[in-house]
Structure formats: structure tokens, C-alpha cells
Give the backbone structure.
Amino acid sequence: ELIVPREQRNGYDHAVRAAGATLVEVGFHEPVAGSGVRRCEAWEIAAAIGPQTAGVFYVHDARARPPLAEVIAVAHARGLPVLVDAAGDLPPRSNLRSLIAAGADLVAFSGGKAIRGPQATGILCGRRDLVGAAALQMLDLNDHYELWEPPPQLIDKRRLSGLPRHGIGRGFKVAKEQIVALLAALRLFVSGAYDADLPVMRSHLARVASGLADLPVECRFVETPDGQSPPLLEIDVSRSPGLDAFALCRRLRHGSPPVYVAHGRLHEGILGIHPLHLTDQRTADLVRCLRAAIAGR
């Protein structure tokens, strides 16, 4: 069993359940329910620990509750590891080290997204024994025990009574070419090389806003204080008569070329534009498609 704050359950935690864990939910997000002011608290995690508890599962976000430090303190007091899903929590770059430094035992980051590596890759870091256990689920085990030489810094074969069969991760192996590409992208990300793209991204978004200036929509720029995350452009149609954000989104997806905007706030009448893959030509195409969709064409 892995204990998880109830408010952190999500559609991606099937990866944890697929490995054999049962998730035990604790706490409530009362502000979302409109029933109070409290969220999950660290004592509730401590109270749920039982004989089948293998650890605590935590989805990291700057606004997540309980604070990670409190969760780590509670878990470590009972000798339990904390597994952190930080797949989408880069930037800032400091998270690559700070979560481990805070005491998290195993942290998963996406190799795509902000790192810009292959989308099917990821990074698993933390305690050597836990990373080694995960690696054992991925390795090619079609060998003879006498010849098998797993990476000794991760796996001590002397602790195994024999060569295991292929594990659950074998069907999801990452190609060597993808690993090399991820390492190259990670070096760029850590060096801050991507920061030089931010002014260009801002200029692309400014062109989009300028291209819609004469239309009945409101454009707003959203910046993050970390100085590393790309800016975003919000297109607000909530006060635009006759415009529906869901209809606009659908129209854009069916356009030529298809355009996929950020759709997390459509219910508020807001479409989001992320500039990561914009070029001069794509920006021009985006403006054309947005204008056509807003005009109902």
C-alpha cells in the first residue's frame, strides 16, 4: 500500500497501481468542495500507516499540501520512503536537486516537456537501492546468471538468488537513441541554454496578440517569477458576445493546419497559447487560424 493525499489522485497514478500498489487515500480538499478551509494534513498520513504500508506517494506542485517537508518527516519517522511524481514540475531547474535534497527517496521527472527530450523518456532519481530496483524491472534478463553483469552501482547481483525473469518495465523500455537524446537535452536544460529562447517566445506571443488586437477578445500575458518558464498568452473570450471557448477550440482543431491550444481554462472562456514550438511561419499561421476561428470560418 502507498498512502496518498486524496486531492493528489489523478489519471496518471495508474502507473503506480500497475506496479502492484494499492493507493490509500487520506484527507480532503475542503476549499474545492466548498465545505471548509482545510486540506490534507500530515498527521492524517501518519494515522493511515499500517502493516501493509510500503511508502507515501506524493504529487509535487508548489501549491501541494501537505508541504513535502512535512510528508517526508512523517514517513521517515516510520522508516518509509516518499515517492514523488514531479513529471511536470520543471522549471525551475533547481527542482532537479532540491527535491532529493529535501529528503524525497524517489523522484520522477518527464524527459519531455521543459527538458525538451524525447516524449517517451523520463528521469528517475533518488535512493540508489530504489533506482536499482526499478532498473531491474527494465533490464534485458535473457542471459545466464554466470554471465550477467548488471550495473554494479545500482544492482548487487550477489543479493539475488538467481536471474529474475523480465519485469513489468520491460515492455516499456526506452531506446538507446532516446536515452542519448535525453542526456543531450538534459545538459542543455541544466546549463540554462534554453533561457535564451525566452525573448523570442515573448516576441512570437506579442505578434499573436497584435494580430488579434482588432477582434473582440482580450489578450493577456502570463509570466512566471522563476525567469526560466516560457511566458503564456491567454485569449479571453468570456466577455465576447457570440464566442464560445469550447467551440473555438474545436474549430481550431479542425482547421488547416490543426491548432491545439491550452484548454485547461475553457470553462472560464480562456484559451491558452504556449510558445515553445512557435517559429515566425508558425506564428503567422497561428494568427491566421485564430482570426478565422473567431470569425466563425
Observations:
- The domain at 2-193 is CATH 3.40.640.10 (Aspartate Aminotransferase; domain 2).
- The chain has a mean pLDDT of 95.
- Strands lie at 2-5, 23-26, 55-59, 82-85, 106-110, 122-126, 218-222, 232-236, 270-273.
- The CA atoms of residues 1 and 22 lie 5 Å apart.
